[in-house]
Automatic annotation (TrEMBL):
<feature type="coiled-coil region">
    <location>
        <begin position="190"/>
        <end position="262"/>
    </location>
</feature>
<comment type="similarity">
    <text>Belongs to the CNOT10 family.</text>
</comment>
<dbReference type="InterPro" id="IPR019734">
    <property type="entry name" value="TPR_rpt"/>
</dbReference>
<protein>
    <submittedName>
        <fullName>Ccr4-not transcription complex subunit</fullName>
    </submittedName>
</protein>
<dbReference type="GO" id="GO:0006402">
    <property type="term" value="P:mRNA catabolic process"/>
</dbReference>
<dbReference type="InterPro" id="IPR039740">
    <property type="entry name" value="CNOT10"/>
</dbReference>
<dbReference type="GO" id="GO:0017148">
    <property type="term" value="P:negative regulation of translation"/>
</dbReference>
<dbReference type="GO" id="GO:0030014">
    <property type="term" value="C:CCR4-NOT complex"/>
</dbReference>
<dbReference type="InterPro" id="IPR011990">
    <property type="entry name" value="TPR-like_helical_dom_sf"/>
</dbReference>
<keyword id="KW-0175">Coiled coil</keyword>
Amino acid sequence: MNLAHRLFTQKKYNEASQQISTLLEKTSGDNKKIVKLKSHLALCEYMKTGRTQPEEYLETLNGIVKQFSKDLTTVDLGYVIYNQAIINYQLKRSQKAAIHLESLRKNVGSLDPYLGFEATHLLLKLSIENNHISQANGLVSLIENQFFQTNTKNNQKNSELQTRNQNKNKHRLLMLKIKLSLCCSEHNKAELFINQLQEIKNRNLQQQKENQIEKLNEKDLLNENLSLNMMRCKIEHSKMNLEEAKNNLWGLSKMMTNLKMKEERNYSNFWSSFYNNLGCVELKNNKSGSALFYFKKALMANSQICKNEKTLNNFSKDKRSEIMYNTGLCLILLEKPQNAFQFFQGALVCLYNRPRVWIRLAECCLLEHFRLIKDKEQKNSLNHLVKKVIGQGKYRTVILQTGIGPNDGLNINEESVSFEDIVSSNVGDLQFHGIPVQSMSLDYASKAASNSILISEKLLKIINNQNQKTSTTSNNNKNSKINENNTIQKNEKNVLINNGFKKGNEKEKQKNQEKININNTTLNSLKSGNTNIDLDDLSKNDQSLKQDLEHGLLLLSYISLCCQNPVTALSSAKMLLNYNPDPYRAYLANIYAAEACCLLNNPNLAKEYISQTLQKRRYQVEKLLKGPKNLKIMTPKEYESNWSDCVTLLNLAFVLILQNEIQTASEYIKQASRMFPNSPLVLLSCVYLELSNGNNQNALELLKSCHAFYPLENSQK
């Protein structure tokens, strides 16, 4: 058996499996030894495939448990059950992993101390991830009473290796305590645990100095240095998480700028992630200029990685897509939609399957559309409202537009343009070459919104299918010892344990500990370094996916109205209302649907949609149907922040004008004029009403009596 163990540690898995197979053929009668050899053999076969077939390995472990569960106890099958939990945890089946670990927790007193601590530690991690606070607190007390108090009594008998492992376990438990206290918003406890970590670090530094005096081997000294560096980074990371939980963005940015570690400067991906995180902190702190500066430095650091290292690892180290996404957000806040549009297109190289990137592209087109309309409205008159003039003098009749006027914003159709024809996307020293650039148009915006809808629907279907499988498997196996209940949870690698067999080499673990894992705090749920869709992230952000779907439908409805496509606008608004959105999106969806119905010459249906908006806000449908006289007259102060109500009344008045109900429409326009008397939109509505009624002289007097129109923003103040 020692030979097989030696071959396994040397990664000679074929020879190790052959050695274990010969031992298994010679063994008979001893079930404990047979279980041990079979579990070793299964682990060797799993490692031979490069850990690419976890399902087959899990089936082998399940077969071992079913075969020997009648003859052996849970304690005898402890390592096999723990490996089942590890594989299920890696496959994001946390419920099954929790069931395995719970069976080990009940017999923790009889288990091997190493196995007992690892099982309870993983169960504690699962409880924190699932936000089971009471269960997590109980597990913390269990670990402290079971593994640390008994060890302190026999501390003199323990060897140096055992005390060192005990310190590592204390460090791991403190890290989980910090996470638990942050989940409970207990910041004082988190600070206390961080101070305890600092004491452990100082104690280890003192021990390291003593060991250096005793002239340890170079290998032992290297291991000590690596563990201390890893601990120092975890302490700094915990402090940053604490400042972020307190929403102390200034303190967080100060800590990050003061972060100076010599070991991490050799890490090629450190500086791009570091500046990206700083930019995200500044962006959350509403400092778009500073954030843009840090994102620029992050892009420059990222470009140096691609130049210096020409290997396949550059694809995983390249953070350009997410940095460009964050830069695009800054440029949107700085009112530069054209530059932001190109940055978002650059982010599509890796983030093409993220619906929010497509939403941002559509928003850039709309922002540019609004800017062009605003510029042209300041120059042009209101002549486009008049369709035709018949007669002269007092017999003159003005025929007004009853549909959508000419488009003064972006082009509706998409045009193929070259990179040089687009406005330069240089921001400071940033220059982009070779990025495919499309023209900004309403057609492209509608395509981007449609892409976001399709991606969101597809991802939601995947999550629903996973949840259905979870419910069916759990219902079919309620009476079994292990329920088949799959829920998607956080993916994290753990060490496979099998009676002394450990997955991986100690040298590899120490090399992995040398690297610093900086999590990129990219905004809007964009995970750093992850270009593929992770079902774990989607399950936790299920609500955000639904919001993206609703936002995409809302954008598509509005863009379709701008493109003079009322059929698509109405269908998108109907689909959005079927998802039961929040009141704000429901209000806009009803308004867009009403406008689409007006364009389709169906004012009755438009009236129903507008009445729904009034019903969900301050008015009732019964009062609306009885007439505007029953509506409560509000003072301007009460409606100071309710511009949307005023727009709703005006839209309803326009629908009534199309139905030739001039008397009722005038009452609604009067109600809107009481709310915002100085609004140019309300005054133009009054003029439109008089012209529709044939009172050209009254319309002229209204135009003469009113002064120069103030901007809409000033009229609302």
